[in-house]
Here is the input.
Amino acid sequence: MKIPAVQRRYCPYCRKHTLHTVKIEKVRKTRRALSLGERKKRRRARGHGNHGKYSKRPISQRKRVVKNVHKVDLRLTCKECGKTRSMGLKRVSRVEIKAKRVFILVQMSVLRSLRFILPAYFANASAVLRGKYFGRTRMDGGLKLGDKDLLGPHKTREGFIGASLTAFVISVLQRSVLKRPEPLIGFLMGVGAMTGDALGSFIKRRIGVSPGGPLPVLDQIMFLIVAIAFVYPIYEVPLDRVLFLLIFTPAIHLAFNLIAYRLGLKEVRW
Here is the structure.
């Protein structure tokens, strides 16, 4: 019997289905005092007792029937919370842990990461469209800090609200199709993405970058960091998922901005 080394099972501690690593649990034999039946069996095996015509032969002279099956216990370890638990199997003759290939595990991790951050991506992308066609009211209200704008004319209230609602709609669609994530998580992710985008504009104005000007790294990951921070109080994001998103989000962000520039939706390529 072949068992996958990584399985998706229900974790009673996380209260959801997560990835579990599977190992065969070795059961130690406990030493205990011999029972009366065990003592009699051993005495007969040594030749004690009546061995007449109608008595049982010693065990050493009997033909033994060896069972070719045995019980197996598996130890499951949740990858998110780290808790372990045991699970029994039926009697089997042979158990083999079959390790999944590395690229399959990487592919599963990539798909789950993208599925999780999809509302934030859509919020960040839709803010450009809503701000361009429906943006009328500046988020900072025209306020200035010193001789510089607080946020700039490109950050509008219509774009902020529309992008947050877009993230909520995307999470509702994901919930209806994939049964995850919760719509509240998607809405908070959209609000966090727009807050991070506005925070990035605030930092760029303070260091002298003009509205629409590039600031590498900050433009690509600020919305992601704040979106994850908004979601973290109600959903603990795994560390490997955060690291993957921090590495690959800049490339995805630049690719989408380049497409929007070619379509005439943005004035700059970044």
Q: What stands out?
A: DSSP finds six helices and eight strands in the chain. The mean pLDDT is 80. The CA atoms of residues 189 and 228 lie 7 Å apart.
